[in-house]
Amino acid sequence: MPSSEHLQYVATAAAFIEKNLTQPLQVSEVCQQIPLSAWQFQRLFRACVGDSIGSYMRKRRLTESAKALQMNSKLRMIDVALEYQFGSQEAYTRAFQKYFAMTPARFRKASLDLHIYGTPYLDSKKIQHFSKQITHQPLILKLEEMRIIGLTTTIRSPLGEEADFIDKLPPLWSEILEKRALIPHRKKGRVFGIAVGEQGSLNEETMTYFAGFEVPLGTEPPSEFSKLDLKSQTYATFENQGLPDVSSVTMDYIYGIWLPQSDYKRGSGYDFEIFDSRYNPSDDKSISTYYLPIIKNK
Q: 3-state class of 213 per DSSP?
């Protein structure tokens, strides 16, 4: 589980957000307060808090704006919207209604109690409970260079407020499975799902997801397919059990909890999952294997 130092990083970020609820604030600015990569810290934050940084900021602003409306009946709605960085009264009303299931005008008129989204309570017991979702230590192994031929789609970052991989990936998988016979010399028995992105980039709002099959090195793809080479390197491998949406939880654990406490740091290259005969997307007991490129800490 995370050390007290890493829990303090999350507390520091939460305090920084709290101090700037009424100021323009980007997720990248929050990450810059912490001596970890943006990718790693966003995973750590979500593992500890249960929410992405962006979503957490939005909910805290909505909560504090609701308190302001409740405490001062003379405040204009537009002023509250701008004060808490929603840009316009219309945008504020939409966000308020989406989160609280009522408009701010109705809330103010009825003086209703709302679910209040407070600052996170962080302690080791909470994190230990989370970390038990993955009960084994990863297998560390070296893989030789591989070539993958397959199809791609663009997805929003899984760390964003509107991640869409649950909607975007099933059609891609259906297509690659339907067309797999067109891939020359494909190795049967397992399929690769690869997140292709400059992980750690503060500007990584979208990523390319690559679904495909391993082929012998040097094999070229048919015209409608793409190729991707995975270089020879060391990986930490994690078994991932459950329905497709559990992969995001596994990544939170890997980046937010396991990696900071391990003797490794993330290496160059791509994260990927391998799906074999143990996997069925409709079975909550199905198993895939997640591969994280690593190098030993010096």
A: strand
Spatial CA neighbour of 234 closest among 145, 142, 171, 118: 142
Q: Tens digits of per-residue pLDDT, 4-33?
A: 677 788 889 999 999 999 999 999 899 999
pTM assigned to the model: 0.68
Report the alpha-carbon distance of residue 49 to residue 122 in Å, rounded.
8
293 vs 234: CA distance, rounded Å: 6
* Half-sphere exposure of residue 64: CA atoms within 13 angstroms, side-chain side: 20
Mind listing the pLDDT tens digit for each residue in 49-80?
A: 878 898 899 989 998 998 898 888 888 999 99
Domain 4-110 CATH superfamily: Homeodomain-like (1.10.10.60)
Among positive and negative, which fits the CA dihedral 39, 160, 49, 69? positive
Contacts of 205 (CB under 8 A, 6+ apart): 156, 157, 160
CATH number of 139-296: 3.20.80.10
CB 77 within 8 A of CB 92: yes
pLDDT of the residue at 145: 95
